Structures are given as structure tokens and as C-alpha cells.
Amino acid sequence: MKCKKYEAIIFDLDGTLIDSMPYHLKAFQELLSERKIKVSEKFLKGLMGMSTAKILEYFKKKYKIKDNVIDLREERRYHYFRILGERNIVFSGVSETLKSLKSNNKLAIATGSSYVTVSHSMKKSFLDLFDELVTINDVKKGKPHPEQLLVAAKKMKVKNSECLMVGDSIYDGIAARRSGMDFIGVTTGFTSEKELKKFGAIVTIKKISELKRTLQNSQSSLRRSLNDH
User: Fold this and answer.
1) CA 9 to CA 105: how far, in whole Å?
2) Domain co-membership, 121 together with 13
């Protein structure tokens, strides 16, 4: 693992901080099923991490769906809200970890979800833990394009090289690499440790609650290395 101190940490949201991926997956499945389109769950999981609009553009073109992307997105959002209900889907230990990290790092979210979906998925008190929130509404291109990460870094007034990206998909890893940021992968989404490392993860963790200890261990290793020399 590359050892350094980060000024800011940028988190993906869905599948990383909140356990929303099964509900997003089900919403896509229902949307496609209504149009008698069958897609394997494995293939659909592989698309998760890109923006909803980009995924819908792919299906619209492939299956010649007549509805426009805006209407499809609203319909998928309706399914997601209905399936999600009032559940608290923040992963266990995430809030405590974020509160602990805030003393030494600026924190941001960079998500392919829209602001309305984000605000429906969690309480305002959770969002208040972050210095910046960059949704798909704030950029022209979602991940794997690096725009969201670049915008987050600029808003926090830190250099790209001073940021760490934490996410659960290969698209987070690609976006981090393209923006010049280190990437830590978390396996709480649909992507394996092997795939996350293949797409640039300097280390993988099983859950966000392991992040602070991982960063502390990397700093301890760096100090020992410097002392040995």
C-alpha cells in the first residue's frame, strides 16, 4: 500500500456508505421487466456504479426503448423509492467512522445519484457530516469520468494528489486514476476484491469502519520505514 497523509477523503455513496445497491438493482429489474426485457443479474450488477442516465442510455439504445431517458429515470426513481421505503440503509459503523475522520480530513461525497435520490436515501444529519456533496446534477459526466472527483477537490480547496477516493466499484477506481487520486476499494457493493485491485485499489477493506485503522497502519508503516533509514 502506498503510504501518505491525505488532506481530504472523497467517498462514493451507494454500496460504499449506504446499503442501497440491492434496491437500485431491483428498481432497474422492475423497469426492464415492465418492458419485457430480460437482463442477467450478473450483467446488471456490473453496470452499477455508473450514473443512472448512462445505464438507461445503454438500455434504450440496445433494446430500442421508445421512452426518453428523463422519463425512464423518473420511473426508475419511483420504483427505488417504493422499494426502499423508510429503511435506514447507512452501513453499520459508517457514521462513527466519519465523525472520527473529520478531525483530520475534509470529507466529500461524489455520487452518480441525483440530489433528490440522495436526500431520500438518508437523513440530513448524515449529509451534514460532509464538507461537500457532488451529485450527478452538479456535473456533465458521471464516473468513470473524473469530473465529480475534480469538482469535489476544487470545492474543498485541496490538490488532487492530496485526496483519497474510497468506493465500491471499478468506476470509482477508474475515476480516481484519471484524476490523479489514490483509491481504496471497499467490498460492500457488487465488486470483488480482485476486481477492485485490478482497477487501481492500493488496498481493499471489507467495510468502511476499517478505514481509519487502515490509514493509521499505513502511517505507522511509513514512519517505521523512515526511521530505518
Assistant:
1) 7
2) yes
Q: At what angle do helices 94-101 and 211-228 cross, to 10 degrees?
A: 40
pLDDT 10s digits, 168-203: 999 999 999 999 999 999 999 999 999 999 999 999
Residue 151 lies in a domain: yes
User: Is residue 6 within 8 Å of residue 161, measured between CB atoms?
Assistant: no
Q: HSE (CB half, 13 Å, CA atoms) of 183? A: 30
The H-or-E segment that residue 83 falls in is: helix 69-84
Residue labelled with grid coordinates 465488486: 191
Contacts of 1 (CB under 8 A, 6+ apart): 202, 203, 214, 218, 221
pLDDT digits (tens, 9 = 90+) for 33-91: 999 999 999 999 999 999 999 999 999 999 999 999 999 999 999 999 999 999 999 99
What's at 186, amino acid-wise?
V
- Cα distances (Å, whole numbers) of residue 131 to 109, 154, 164, 177, 214: 9, 12, 15, 22, 22
**Element (H or E) spanning 66, and its range?**
none
Give residue 32's domain range.
21-84
Residues 107 and 213 grouped into a single domain: yes
C-alpha 83/C-alpha 24 separation (Å) is 9
- At which residue does the C-alpha cell 517505521 appear? 224
The Cα angle at residue 28 between residues 95 and 193, in degrees rounded to 5:
50
